[in-house]
Design brief:
By secondary structure, the chain is of the alpha/beta class. The chain is about 40% helix and about 15% strand. The protein has 13 helices and 10 strands. β4, α3 and β5 form a beta-alpha-beta unit.
Length: about 350
């Protein structure tokens, strides 16, 4: 398993991590993803560790804390072998302060995650979303206190816009405190808007991408083809309305290119989609998920090989999207404003 630096930190992480959104199934939304119990999770963790995947990602809102509890049970007795990342910010209960990134909520959230996970520290804690109601001095100051207390080792964010992330980084610089080293972001062959602003920012500021939903909310599993519609058994029936829209003509254009590469490589559609991400700038880690052992083993086949430059170019061309302003205009000034390729 290849390891990479997490942003500009000295911390290295495996290029793949296992997402625990399928653990617990404690709410209707997450039942559509999966409902793996502690026994099943322990087996999946075993397979991950055997393959060199030592990083596991969760969040307090995944099944209202149950995913963290299941993960905690699955890693019991082997905490020193795993890297734990988790997140908080979204509303956790109907209590007035049980939402956002205030010192009050983050303190409750972090201590709650530590208890559910059965550990005394979190390797990477990420703000799940930007809280515009709380001053960044309060947010970053609180996180810095937890780092200094040894309860968090590194901090990051998730789902931030470019100015959100830059404001957080600037606040840390101003105060001389710990800064974010990671941004957990949506990025896939059918969702490349991460590249427009967040990727150049990540390169400039040393923030590594931890990619979520590398298969485009299940659209790049290989099960969706022209004229077939959604598979009868698919979480997309529940989750698609909450995910990013993907026009069918665009999706099928990308799928055609992936199918060509699949014939050349003998690899599956998901393996190609994930391998493409692993060759993109700023990507430190890609989160994979699986309901069962077979899905997990399939995803493990994404590493240990590389798409050729010609294959990368074919996928890049097929998945290219028209940028919104000012990003399309910036492409006309690459002489002094180089963009990632």
């Amino acid at each position: 398993m290849e390891y990479r630096q997490l942003g500009r930190s000295g911390f290295t992480v495996p290029v793949l991590s296992f997402g625990t959104g399928t653990f617990g199934g404690g709410t209707e939304f997450f039942k559509a993803w999966g409902s793996t119990d502690a026994k099943g999770a322990t087996r999946l963790v075993d397979i991950c560790l055997d393959a060199g995947i030592s990083m596991f990602d969760s969040a307090d809102v995944y099944s209202k804390g149950l995913a963290e509890e299941v993960l905690g049970a699955a890693i019991k007795g082997r905490r020193n072998k795993v890297i734990i990342s988790t997140k908080a910010t979204f509303r956790f209960s109907d209590k007035p302060n049980d939402v956002g990134s205030s010192r009050a909520h983050l303190t409750e959230a972090i201590n709650g995650s530590l208890k559910r996970l059965g550990t005394d520290y979190i390797d990477l804690f990420q703000l799940h979303g930007f809280d515009a109601m709380t001053p960044q001095e309060e947010v970053m100051g609180c996180l810095d206190d937890f780092v200094r207390a040894g309860k968090i080792r590194y901090t990051g964010c998730s789902n931030f816009s470019g100015w959100h992330l830059m404001k957080s980084l600037a606040t840390s610089e101003k105060l001389g405190i710990n800064r974010h080293v990671a941004h957990q972001a949506y990025y896939s062959l059918v969702g490349r808007s991460y590249e427009w602003e967040l990727m150049p920012l990540g390169l400039d500021q040393g923030v590594g991408a931890v990619v979520w939903s590398p298969l485009g909310w299940g659209r790049l599993t290989g099960k969706i083809r022209r004229g077939t519609g959604l598979p009868k058994e698919s979480r997309l029936h529940v989750t698609a309305k909450n995910g990013p829209p993907v026009p069918e003509d665009y999706l099928f254009r990308v799928m055609d290119a992936i199918d060509e590469v699949a014939k050349e490589t003998g690899k599956s559609v998901p393996q190609i989609a994930i391998n493409w991400l692993l060759q993109r700038p700023t990507v430190s880690n890609v989160i994979i998920g699986a309901r069962d052992e077979e899905q997990l083993k399939q995803n493990l086949g994404s590493v240990g090989w590389k798409l050729t430059p010609a294959q990368m170019a074919k996928l890049d061309t097929a998945s290219k999207q028209t940028k919104t302003y000012p990003y399309w205009h910036q492409e006309e000034f690459i002489e002094r404003n180089p963009l990632p390729v």
